Every structure is written in structure tokens, then in C-alpha cells.
Amino acid sequence: MIILTTSAGVQQLSVIPRTYTSLFTMTVRDDSTNVLKQYDIDNATTSGNYLNWAVTFLPTLAESHFYDLHLYVDYNYWNTNYNFWNLDEQVWNLESTSIEDIYNDRIFCTDQDIDQLNKNDHYRMNEGKYTFYNGYDNTYTVR
Fold it and tell me: What's the pTM?
């Protein structure tokens, strides 16, 4: 699972995909509203086993929402993969239905600091919504 924030700025993503490419399409679907947003990524780089890219989510991601992330190469777009079009025996003007899945995952959006590995900070669902009041002296026992 990928954890992102509600920031309106650029956010960095890093995944280990099935196929490494610098041009692909990313779709993000909100599980709560079922709204699908598509982003064309053309600036991805490979560093070791990771595929890294930056994206600005517009509209911004909503706090405490889950999203489905889908990365794929749609060969229906021209110049996505030169070899595919050069080796294809179909007429170039016909639309192709070939889509290559690169990666699927889930995104969770929160502005909380989560560091389970080093600081043992876990996500708290009621953070900032519920405060515990401990103003009573509950040491007295009624007999």
C-alpha cells in the first residue's frame, strides 16, 4: 500500500513494476466516490529496481480515503511503443485494443506522520476528532 498526503503539490511515487517504461498511463479511482482520474506520465525514471515519477493530483486526494492505483501502457496511443507499431501487421489507422498492465496497488491518503518502522507511529483513525478527558478522580470506591 502506498501512503500519500492531501498536498496540492508534486508527490513522488516509487514502485517495482512488472515492466519498466518511462511512458505510461496512471489511473486513480476513489473507493468512496468511484471517481476515476487519469494521468499521462512521461517523466518516469528507473533507479535500481524502482520506477520513480512525480505527479500532481488534481483534484487533491481526500483525507482518509482509499484509492485504486493502476499503471498501464495503452498501445492505442501513437508513439507509446515504436516496436509495437513497426511489427504490427494491422493497418496503422485501426485502433488497437492491446493494454499492458504494469502495476496495480492501493493508495491511502492521510496527513498524519506514519513511521511504523523507526518511531512506532501508527495511523490513528480518531486523531484530532476525539479527546480523552481525565478530569475526574476515579480512585474512590463506593461500598
Answer: 0.71
